[in-house]
Amino acid sequence: MSNILTSPRSDDEVAALTQAWLEQAVIGLNLCPFAKSVHVKKQIRYKVSRAVEWDALSQDLEEELTLLAGADPEDIDTTLLIIPLALADFLEYNDFLDWADRILERLGLDGELQIASFHPRYQFADAQADDIENYSNRSPFPILHLLRESSIDRAVAAYPEASAIFEKNMATLRKLGLSGWNALPFVVSDKQA
């Protein structure tokens, strides 16, 4: 099974699969103890980009960064910019992340916002492609997670063991195993895509 979805889906389907991943993996497995609060309060913006080229995706990213920076955190605390039609190759996605950070800096939002990364084929630098630990950052589609620095600071202050999250996630995923991950309802095989 693969997490990548290659066929065109409606924005509603893409957002629903992404929300299912958030609920079942990120919150359900407690991979991010900070996600539940903003999810319950409906402060997560799910924005689907139909871009297939970097220029259009850069424009969508710039619009979402500007919107998030200007929004009331009580309304929108974080944004998931979901990219179902581009950046399927993980190395290209990584290259785009560098470009995305330059956009953030050009907008003068570095230090106010940051971009976290999730991808169907996410792979840590020191890991093998099939290592279960990679799945802490694997999602149904390439995603740019736009976060407020102030929200991160508040969440880390409220969570006394923030530095232990990574190791806890690795232990959770090792216990779950690949068969457990593939049994999660949001995981879609290439045959279903």
From TrEMBL:
Protein known as: DUF1415 domain-containing protein
InterPro entries the record matches: DUF1415 (IPR009858)
Originating species: Herbaspirillum frisingense
A Pfam family reported for this protein in Swiss-Prot or TrEMBL: DUF1415
